[in-house]
Amino acid sequence: MDSIQSTVLSNDARPHFRPRTGARSGLPPCSIIEPAEERPAARRRIPLCETTLGSQQKSLAVDMTSLWHRFVERGDASRRGAIVEALARERVRTHALASGEAAGPGILFFDEVNQPFCDLVRETSRNGLERVLAVAIPQTAVTGTGVWRLLRNGASDVFAWDHSTHPAREIAARFERWQKVDEVVASPVVGENLVGNNPGWISVLRQIVEVAIFTDASVLITGESGTGKELVARLIHSLDTQRQKRDLVVLDCTTIVPELSGSEFFGHERGAFTGAVAARDGAFALANAGTLFLDEVGELPLTLQAELLRVVQERTYRRVGSNVWQQTDFRLVCATNRDLLQEESQGRFRRDLYYRIAAWTCKLPSLRDHPEDILPLAEHFLRHLRPNHEPEMDQAVRDYLCQRAYPGNVRDLKQVVSRMSYRHVGPGPLTAGDIPQEERPTLDAAPSEWRDGSFEAAIGRAVGMGIGLKEISHTAVDTAIRIAVASASGNLSRAARQLGVTDRALQMRRAARRKGANGKDSDVAPEQFEDSA
Ligand SMILES: Nc1ncnc2c1ncn2[C@@H]1O[C@H](COP(=O)(O)OP(=O)(O)OP(=O)(O)O)[C@@H](O)[C@H]1O
Ligand SMILES: [Mg+2]
Fold first, then answer.
1. Same domain, residue pair 217 and 304
2. Which of 52, 385, 473, 502 has its CA 20 to 30 A from that of 238?
3. What is the pTM of this model?
4. 376 alpha carbon, closest ligand
């Protein structure tokens, strides 16, 4: 029966993380929710985040007085006034977006989807980091592909003011939900466990938080090895307010032995088979009122997939050796680094099981798709490895980490940082000498190596989607700036040096972006950015 590594993580095993009532921050207390691999086998019972999110949600006073609005349309002033008043009646008090204002969440009203408006959406939403709702006046402004263009540029939602009788109420409901989700994403329970600020990563986190808190849907987490699938599964369990937070039961499907799997999943009666000296609960019983996490679900043998259909669909099962149907109730979370739909098309995964386990799917990005998170992640790991020291790295180490490839994703990065940390002596930042010999970069790396397949693929996707050259160049420049500024810890001079431009050129480009956010077309084109170097 040891063939399956099943873990029961009970609330009782978490003495250190009971909810602290009356905690002054009002935020949920949190702990590290490390995946199994980093723990010694004997310590499978680890503390999980104990959250008070359920009660916190109910008391969240949604503040919708700091929203901005901007009308980018040719309507008359009285109509605009009526819209603003209708919003105020639903407690959505907005102010006109002032020029130069550091924007937060807001509403853009528009009557045409064109490139300047897409740029405005991108700038005001900071590529989707801020919640920006695009509202069409009139409805005809959102026909064809316009909606998708706006969503792609960072709008959180797009609809027409006159598409229903209560548009202001809809807008209020949207922002209320988004605010609740964003508060949880910004809380320590998420931020101290799942690190990252990249817009794509934040968007994935928001979806995870939303599905965990507001639904009890089965979730399928996909992504390459080391992208944080198990961490996310644990987060979903710890945020789940639908159940009274019973156990998280982890089953690693790679270690399943078909002959014993029935008992491990369903449990067995005494005498059901040779060696069954006592009745035993299986994973489905243990996960009752909690979460069942099927890790590496793509490895499940086909015969077992068929056996799981009923319990996954109806939450009823029979123990091995029994005719009595038992009831259970759990949230199902599965993870895999395989493409299950492709597996299905090749007959290796049952389509009916796929649709039962994937009520909601979430694909975690590879680390190469959010490189600006490399340094924050490295600092996060250093903080845990050297709790009494500042997580400092000198520039050579920072450059090395940013330029290195991470085929094993975040796990890979964590290992590199650990190795450097083991070598590091004394106070002060980690230095180049701390990088293990075999890890050091070779000097003969070809300068064109960075234009690899993923670069080609991203540009290919953009071209295929009809994105114009201007947007592609702007995006490339903005991404390079964001990464360089992050790598230089916000030091603009250092970032400018790294990018080979003058401080002034970098500042101009950033100012132009801010101007763009205020609805004016950016007056520094990427080529000017180059020229001003
Ligand atoms: N966003 C993140 N923030 C902090 N740590 C992370 C993050 N993503 C992954 N990690 C860390 O990286 C390591 C690998 O994560 P995890 O085991 O969850 O990956 P996985 O996707 O399940 O990998 P595999 O497919 O190989 O099982 C863990 O130590 C985890 O704590
Ligand atoms: Mg895993």
1. yes
2. 385
3. 0.77
4. 1
Q: How many structural domains compose the chain? A: 4
Interval between CA 250 and ligand 1 midpoint (Å): 15
Distance 287 CA to ligand 2 centre (A): 19
Which residue is it, tokens 């990249």? 198
> So what's the pLDDT on residue 65?
66
HSE, side-chain direction, 13 A CA sphere, residue 317:
28
Instruction: Give pLDDT tens digits for 306-339.
Output: 989 999 999 999 998 989 999 999 999 999 999 9
Spacing, Cα 479 to ligand 2 middle (Å): 30
The pick from 49, 195, 219, 227 for probing ligand 1's pocket by mutation, whose C-beta has the most ligand atoms within 8 angstroms, reads: 227
- The residue whose CA has the least distance to atom 18 of ligand 1 is 228
Domain boundary among 181, 216, 237: 181
Tell me the CATH number at 109: 3.40.50.2300
How many angstroms separate the Cα of 200 from the Cα of each of 160, 476, 527?
A: 26, 15, 27
Q: Could you list the residue range(s) of the whole structural domain that residue 22 is in?
A: 6-49+193-363
Residues 235 and 308 grouped into a single domain: yes
Atom from ligand 1 closest to the CA of residue 231: 18
Same domain, 259 and 331: yes
Determine, yes or no, domain membership for 334: yes
pLDDT tens, residue by residue, 448-460:
567 777 788 788 8
Tokens encoding 54: 């359920």
Going from the Cα of 231 to the center of ligand 1, the distance in angstroms, rounded, reads 6
Cβ–Cβ under 8 Å, residues 298 and 343 = yes
Write the pLDDT tens digit of every residue in 134-165: 999 987 778 778 999 999 999 999 999 999 99
Ligand 2 center to 371 CA (angstroms): 21
Q: Is residue 167 part of a domain?
A: yes
User: Which letter, b or e, does each residue of 121-138 get, where b requires 16 or more Cβ atoms within 10 Å of its Cβ?
Assistant: bbbbbbbbebbbbbbbbe
CA 194 to ligand 1: nearest atom: 3
